[in-house]
Amino acid sequence: MASLSSLTFSLNAIQWINVLSDPSDPDSPGLWRFADPTFVAEYPDVLAQIRNAGFDTTMMEVLDTQTLQSYARMIADAGLRVSPGYAQVPVGSAHGGRLEKGTFERAHWFDGVRRKAEESTYMGLSRIFLAAEVDYAAPRWEHPAVGYDFDQDRLDEQLELLDEAVDVLNAEGVRPGLHNHVGTLVETQQEYEYVLENIDASRLGAAFDIGHLEWAGIDARAVLEKWGDRVQDLHIKDIDLDVARRTREEGLSYEKATNLGLYREPGLGDLDLVGILGALPDGFDGTVLIEVDRASMDPGESATYTAGWLAEATKS
Ligand SMILES: O=C1C[C@@H](O)[C@H](O)[C@@H](O)C1=O
């Protein structure tokens, strides 16, 4: 069993990123500010707030609107280090048709993954989270956390493309860990286990998301106990288990669940994060990336609150 004080924690900037378009209207559409071309001007201040809250590490996220060099300078200027980033792999059938091997389109399908490999090696990282695509137009975004519309052929298509992405990353010395994510094609226990069982452990580790497991009704502690020898990094987040249950039983959409307050600062939700992390094997040397996907307070205060929770949780 790992002792919490020996773990390396990092904070994702996500509470500044996944915000309501109209903060006064809880049902207004969510924004994803990493994709907003104007966010680059605000990024240094966000990184400074992460540092000032007491974190020394944040998730690698290079914006499309900046160079690797400018990103590295921003991180250094903020006095931060980076922890493993995140690569996604879409399936062709969700975007016009399956991709034939040897085609121009298939070769370019992995440009985003190659870019992530380049970013990782430039920033001195040798690991990354690898996930199926978050696709806001996919049926699962409207029916999350229940393995909606499962299709074995589509899972095989996803597996084949993830396998190729693993090759792309491995070729650059970057070891991916499979990441489960609600709303994607790797959402349920059956789905992530299928991928892990069909791609060799020498090429692909596991990099679970504790919050997404529990949202899908999966016992995260049991998952860490079962896959402990393969887990290389983690995302943790606290959630409201009642909203999670309602998502599954009443069919709330991903956005509705988020707007209803599914996500919580650590300690303000229902998960026993300390107990769950205690299931990590002794000597675990990965990063535990803390995420507050939607802050319940001002994002800067949320980061400070989270740092306070962490200080308490890791007190030996
Ligand atoms: O891995 C993740 C990436 C984000 O897209 C997402 O909002 C977050 O929940 C997550 O775990």
UniProtKB/TrEMBL annotation:
Pfam families in the cross-refs: AP_endonuc_2
Name all Xylose isomerase-like TIM barrel domain ranges: 48-312
- Say yes or no: keyword Lyase present: yes
**This protein's record includes keyword Lyase:** yes
Signal sequence span is none
EC number(s) recorded for this UniProt protein: 4.2.1.44
EC class name: lyase
Which keywords, in A-to-Z order, does the entry hold?
A: Carbohydrate metabolism, Lyase
Q: What is this protein called?
A: Inosose dehydratase
Query: Which organism is this protein's natural source?
Result: Microbacterium azadirachtae
From the broadest rank down, the organism's phylogenetic lineage runs: Bacteria, Bacillati, Actinomycetota, Actinomycetes, Micrococcales
